[in-house]
Amino acid sequence: MKPSVPILRKQEYYVQEANKADTRDFIRHHHYSKGLSNTGVYYHGLFRRVDDCMVGAAHWLPPTKNACLSVNRHNRQKVLALSRLAIMPGIPQNAFSFLLGRSVRLIKQERRFHSLVTYADDWQGHTGRAYLSRGRQYRGITSRSPKWVDPTTGRQVSRLSTKTRTNGTMKELGYEMIGVFAKHKFVLHIEDYGL
C-alpha cells in the first residue's frame, strides 16, 4: 500500500505579496537556480497561517521582447513571465498549484497584464505538466541554449545582462557552461483565468 501524501488545506495557508529580499533569500535556498534577477514586478509568498512562515515563493518579471511578441504580438507590453517558483521541502504536494493559482489571481486583480508565460526547464527534467491547468496552453519547446553556472556557488547565471554576453565573456568571468538545453513553453491569457 502506498503511503498517503499530505494535501495542502487551503485554510492553513495563504498567498500574498512578499518582500523582495525575503523572496531572494528563499529562492537562493529552495530553487535549483540558486538566484533571482535584479528586476521583478511581483514577489508573492506562500505562508503558513500557524506561524506566518514563508514556505513558497513566486517571482514574476517582464520577458524579452521576442518572448513578448511570441505570446501577445498586439500587446507585448502587457506580457509577464514567471521567473521562479519554489516550494520548501515537506510542504504538501499541491502547494505548487495553490501558490501559482493564487499568484495569478493577485496579478489579475491589478489589471496591468494580459498574458503570462511560463517555462519548464529540461535541464531539471521538468515537463511543465502542472502548468496545463486553468486555461494555460502548451506552446511547444524552445530552441536549445547554453546553461551557465557560477562554479563556486552553483548559481545559474544568464548571458543577458545590460547586454548579451558572448560565450567567451562568460568564460572570462569564470562561469561554466554545463550543457545546452530547451524549455517547454506555456501561455495563459489572463482574461481566461477565472477568479
Notes on the protein architecture:
This protein is of the alpha+beta class and 195 residues long. 21% of the residues lie in helices and 31% in strands. The chain is built from 4 helices and 10 strands. It has helices at 20-30, 65-71, 95-110, 167-172; strands at residues 13-17, 42-48, 54-61, 79-87, 115-121, 137-141, 145-149, 156-157, 176-181, 183-189. The strands form 2 sheets. The protein has a 7-stranded mixed beta sheet with strand order 1-2-3-4-5-10-6, with helices on both faces. A 3-stranded antiparallel beta sheet has the order 8-7-9, with no helix packed on it. A hairpin with a 6-residue loop joins β7 (145-149) and β8. The longest helix has 16 residues, at 95-110. It is globular. The protein starts with 12 loop residues before the first strand and ends in a 6-residue tail after the last strand.
Q: Distance between the terminal alpha carbons, to the nearest Å?
A: 37 Å
How would you characterize the largest beta sheet? 7 strands, mixed
Please write the string of helix (H) and strand (E) elements: EHEEHEHEEEEHEE
Q: Describe the oligomeric state of these chains in a short phrase.
A: single chain
Can you give keywords for this protein?
single chain; 195 residues; alpha+beta; 7-stranded mixed beta sheet; 3-stranded antiparallel beta sheet; 4 helices; 21% helix
Q: Care to give the gist of this entry?
A:
21% of the residues lie in helices and 31% in strands. It has helices at 20-30, 65-71, 95-110, 167-172; strands at 13-17, 42-48, 54-61, 79-87, 115-121, 137-141, 145-149, 156-157, 176-181, 183-189.
